Amino acid sequence: MSSSANSFLKRRISRQSVIQWADNVVTVGGDAPVRVQSMTNTDTADAIGTAIQVKELARAGSEIVRITVDTPAAAAAVPSIRDQLDKMGVYVPLVGDFHYNGHTLLKDYPDCAQALSKYRINPGNVGQGAKRDVQFSQMIEMACRYRKPVRIGVNWGSLDQDLLAKLLDENAASSHPKELREVMAEALIQSALQSAARAEELGLDGNQITLSCKVSAVQDLIAVYRDLAKRCDYSLHLGLTEAGMGSKGIVASTAALSVLLQEGIGDTIRVSLTPEPGAPRENEVIVAQEILQTMGLRNFTPMVIACPGCGRTTSTYFQELASRIQTYLRHQMPIWKKDYPGVEAMNVAVMGCIVNGPGESKHANIGISLPGTGESPAAPVFVDGIKVKTLRGDNIAEEFQVIVDEYVKNTYRAQ
């Protein structure tokens, strides 16, 4: 967390969970930074395809990756996925997402149970009636046996119907009945808390439990997590379920998560975007990172500051340069983060005219002010607030990229 964030944001006190594979230890909760999660959308039975997507998500910055484990074929493929990742040097922890038959798959495929770093259990989908407690207990017992942490993830679309019916009956008999949405929120929270208490009774370390209560409406999510945060000290995973596609999904997730994070609620997040056709899966990782970075909670990759454009910038050159530099910075990060610690906090300004260009450029670590319509065809470059040169001609983009590279190597070189 940046020092500026420390001055106004106090994190909720929570227990700390440890998720591990090989030497890669990811802590969640406590004094750990807010972690970024993602989930594959491949058929897990396709071990090669799933391993490739996990690698892409991890390379984009996902610190934990969840995979669907829904069939015997998927469970059988998990050890192979883990092996493929290990051979590629990708040690990101894998979370198995279980519904309906998780108790059977974990029992019948012990290599799968061992290869996963964490289990996600949905209390609404572990069984019906008398089977629910038995099958939930079986999954927790497997987590204890293999020393795996657990996320108890309640979802409004698959809520425990027996619990909901009980609360609805009590509400109907009350002299001051609540609205349906309030009753559903209480059912979500009670399902999570009761399941966590039962897991601890069965021997699971409470520090190794993370809770989530996901809904798809922004205000409902905020209300549920505010209440949940007051009633427990488990680490909390945030996410707006079924957030949607494109700008709608990004805006809705940002609106909900930002409010909660600003209040110190949330230890790990996922942005559940519906991918647009052809869009890379790792977009959800980038959005999650940008939420945390723009709020000043974490730094992941150098940020590009660019003006929106106006009548002074009828040329698209500055837009193209900003896009080019932003893409270049993100692609360089897997290399730079090893050799140039601190580079993720760097700011680069690409501005389009003389109005705000020089001023914004001076405030960035590196900035360039491109000429606007009718302005002199010159682009002053500023490094740490000082004008160092003026670029002209057809190779401004290439020359500016060289300046960025030199700045990184000279400023962030490991001591």
Automatic annotation (TrEMBL):
Entry function: Converts 2C-methyl-D-erythritol 2,4-cyclodiphosphate (ME-2,4cPP) into 1-hydroxy-2-methyl-2-(E)-butenyl 4-diphosphate.
Key words, A-Z: 4Fe-4S, Iron, Iron-sulfur, Isoprene biosynthesis, Metal-binding, Oxidoreductase
Family: Belongs to the IspG family.
GO terms (BP aspect): isopentenyl diphosphate biosynthetic process, methylerythritol 4-phosphate pathway; terpenoid biosynthetic process
The UniProt record lists the keyword Zinc-finger: no
Positions that bind [4Fe-4S] cluster: 307, 310, 353, 360
Domain IspG TIM-barrel positions: 26-288
InterPro entries tied to this protein: Dihydropteroate_synth-like_sf, IspG_bac, IspG_bac-typ, IspG_C, IspG_TIM, NO2/SO3_Rdtase_4Fe4S_sf
KW Oxidoreductase (keyword) present: yes
Provenance organism: Polynucleobacter victoriensis
GO molecular function, one term: iron ion binding
Catalytic activity annotation: (2E)-4-hydroxy-3-methylbut-2-enyl diphosphate + oxidized [flavodoxin] + H2O + 2 H(+) = 2-C-methyl-D-erythritol 2,4-cyclic diphosphate + reduced [flavodoxin]
Record-listed E.C. numbers: 1.17.7.3
Needed cofactors: [4Fe-4S] cluster
Lineage top rank: taxon: Bacteria
Pathway(s) where this gene product acts: Isoprenoid biosynthesis; isopentenyl diphosphate biosynthesis via DXP pathway; isopentenyl diphosphate from 1-deoxy-D-xylulose 5-phosphate: step 5/6
Broad class of enzyme this protein falls into: oxidoreductase
Residues in IspG C-terminal domain copies: 304-405
Pfam families: GcpE (PF04551), GcpE_C (PF26540)
Cofactor remark: Binds 1 [4Fe-4S] cluster.
Name listed for the protein in its UniProt record: 4-hydroxy-3-methylbut-2-en-1-yl diphosphate synthase (flavodoxin)
